[in-house]
Amino acid sequence: MTPAKMTSETFAAPLWLRYEGWMGRGIGFLCGALAVFAFAPLHLWPLGLISFALLFLRLVLVGQTNPQFKAGLSTAFWQGLGFFGAGIFWVGSAFIARGPEFIPIMPPAVLALAALLAVFWGLAGGVFVRWRLTGLSAVIAFSAAMMLAELARGHAFGGFPWNLPGYIFEAGSRPSQFASLGNIYGLSWVVLFLSGSVALLFTAKTRLVGAALSGLILAGLYGFGHVRLSDAKTETVPNVNIRLVSVPFSQADKFNAEKSNAIVNQFLTASIAPGAEDVTHVIWPEGAVNGLAMDNAPLLNAMGRDLLSVDNSPPVWIMNSLRSEIMPHPRGGEPITNYYNSSVAVEFDAGGYPAIVAVNDKHRLVPFGEFFPGGKWLESYNFPVFSTALASISAAPEKTLIDIPGLPRVSAQICYEADFPGLTPRDAVRPAQLIINQTNDAWYGKTWGPAQHANIARYRAIEEGLPIVRSASNGLSAMIDPYGQIVTQINMDDAFHIDTVLPKSLDAKMATSLVTFIIALINSLISCIHLFTRRRLGLRRT
Hints:
single chain, alpha/beta, five-stranded mixed beta sheet, 13 helices, 11 strands, globular
C-alpha cells in the first residue's frame, strides 16, 4: 500500500497514483470507472481523456519502478475492470427481465464479462511497461499497444467493440466526423494519442510538447469536423416517406401472452394513425413481435386489413422476425430446424393479402443471448442447451445487401450488428445507399445501455456515408443522416410514430474494413519497432 519508489525521470504524478497493492488496484478501478461518464448519454469527453491519461501515467510509473509484464498487466487490468464493469452494468437488466430465477447469476456473469474484456487492456499494459519508455516515444507506444488491444477486443471470439475510446464524442458532432476518414478505430487511436499527450503535461520536461500536441489534435478534430458539416448535403430520396413506429414496453411483459398481444395491438394502431395514406414504408423494431412473426398469418392479415382501411395502396411493412429452416442433421441426416433472426419486408396487394418480398438474416449474433458458444456442436449430439429460442439461433454465413421495393439498396443490420464497423457489404455495381437498424433495447431497461447503443450505431452512418433508419424498442428510433446527425426522432417514453423523408447517401468511401486493416498494420509495425529497439538496447547493455 506504500507508494512505489521513484527515479529522477518519473513523471511528477500525484502521490495517490503511485500506490501499489490493493490500494493501487482500487485507484485503478476508480480511474477506469471515471471514463464511463465520457460516453453516452453524458458525453463529458474530457473525463475520458483524463481517465486514459491516468492509465498512461500509472503504466509509465510502473515501467520505471517495476518493469515486469505481470505488474503492467495488473495495472491495466484493474483499470479496465473499472471501465468495463461500470460501462456494461446495464447487461444485468437482461437477467432481471428473464425472471427471478436468473437474478442470482447476474452479478458473476456481468463481472466475468468485464474481467474478460479487461484482459485485453491488461495484455497491452504488460507489453507497454516492458518497453520502459518516457516522453513522446511513450505516448506513441501507449497508443499503439492500446489500439491493438481494442482491435483485438472488437474481433476476437466474435468481438465486443462497445465503448471504444472514440465514442466519447457524440456521433454527429465535429470531432466525430474524423470517423469518415479513419472509422471509429482511427478516431479511437487519435483519442488514445491525445490522452497520452495530456499526460505529458505532468512533467516540466515534456509539458510544452504535451500542450502543443493536445492543442493541435483538438484543433484538427474540431476544424475538420466544422468544414465537413458546413458542407453537409440536405438532398432527399424522392417518393419515399417512412413511418417509424415506437411503443414503450418492459421486456418482462413480452413473456406474458396477454400483455404481449396488447403491445402488438398498439403497434398496429400507431401504424395506421393519421397520415398513413402518404406513407410508403412502415418499420417496426426488433422485439415488437415475438417468435416466428413472418409465419403468423393472423398478424400479417390484420396488418394488411388495417393498412388497406386507410389507403388502397398499402405501404411496405418492414418488421423483425425469427425464421425457421429445415435442414438435415449434421450427423444422422434426420431433419432438424434452424432458426434465424431476420429483417423481413412484407408487401400487400390491392386486397390486403401479404407476401414476403425480402428477407435478410442476422450474421453477427449475441453470445449467450442468441446462441450458446458451442451450442450447435452440443445440439448435434442431442445435448440440451439453454438459449433464447428452442435451439441456438444460427448465423447467416455472410452479410448481404437486400432489395426492398420502393427503397434504394439496403444494408439491414439487426441490433448487435450495428456495433461492428465495416459490416455493410461492398458492391461496386449496386452499392448500399441506406442502413436499416432494427434493435430491441428493452432488454436493458432505463439504463445508459440504450443511449450508448444509439451513439455507436450512428457512427456507422459517418463511416459509410449512408443514412440510417433506426427503429428501436425502448431506444432511439430516428432518421440519421450520413453525417451521424439526427434528422428526426421519437421520444423512447412515448407510444408514437414519426413520418420522415430519406436523406441521400454520400459518395462511396474507402472500405471501412480496409481502413481497419491499415490501422492494425501501422500499430503493429510501431509495436514491432519498439520491441526490436528494446531487444537491441538490452543486448548492448549486456
